[in-house]
Fold:
Amino acid sequence: MRFSARMGGIWALLHPGPSLLTVLAFAICATIAAHGHPALATLALATVGLTSQQFAISALNDYCDRSSDVLLVKKRKPIVLGLVSPGFALSLALILASIMVVCFLPLGIIPLMFAAWFLLLGFAYDLGIKSTPISGLMHGLAFPTIPLLAWSLFARLGPQLLWAFPLGMCVGIGIHLADAIPDADSDSQAGIHGLAQVLGTRAQYACWGAIALAIGLIAGIALAAPTRAATTILLSTALIGCGLLISTIVLFWRSRGSIATRYRQQFIMLVATSLVVVAGWFTAIIL
Structure:
C-alpha cells in the first residue's frame, strides 16, 4: 500500500472536519473568556488536548462502525477500504485519549474533568448510543462543555454559565441532526435507529427548530441582561443568528445543487450560526 494512501486513510479516520470545528469553537470561547488575550501556553496545551480528544472519539467511531459500514456502499470509510486496520484504529483512539489526559493534567482538576466528561460522552455515543433515539441528547450534553472548559481555564466559573446547558442542548441536537440526516436512510438499513430515524421526515424541521430555539433563548436572555451593552450584544446576536438561519433554509430549498451538496451547505451554515450564537452569548456574559 502506498504511504500517501495510508496517511490519507488515517486522516479520514480522524474525521478532521467536525473534529477541528469543535476545536475552533473552543478557541473562540477561550479568546472571549480571556478578553482577547489568552495565555498562549495554556491555550496551546488545551488545544492539543482537545484535538486529541476529538480525534480519539472519531477513530473509535469508525472502529465501532466497521461492520455496518461494510454494508453501506456510499460510505467509503478507511477501515472498510483497508487503508487502516481495526486494531490500528482502536489503538490510535486509546493513545489519543491518553494524550488528552496528559495535556489537561497540568491545567487543573476542573478542566480535566470537563475534558474527560466530553470524552466519555463521545465514547458512549460511539459504543452504541448513536443507534438509539437519545443520540442527539449526547451531543446536547457535550456541547456545553466547550464554553465551560474555556471559562474554567481563562476566567471564573459562575452562575451565569448555567445558560450553557439549554443553549448547548439546542445547538447540540440541531448540529447532530444536520450531520445525521444526509445518511439517515443508509444508516437505518445498517440497523441504526437514532434520533434522525425516529423523527423521519420531521427531522429536517426539528433540526431548524432546535437552532431557532437557541436563537430564541438568546433573545430571551437579552430581556434579563444586567447591562445595556449586554442587551445590545444579545439582541444583535439573535438578529444575526435569525438572518443566518433564514438564509440557510432558503438556500436549502432554492439551491439547484444536488441533495448532497445542499446538505453540506446546510451543515456549514448551521455550524456558523451556532458559533455566532455561542460567541455572542459568551461575549455578553463577560461584560
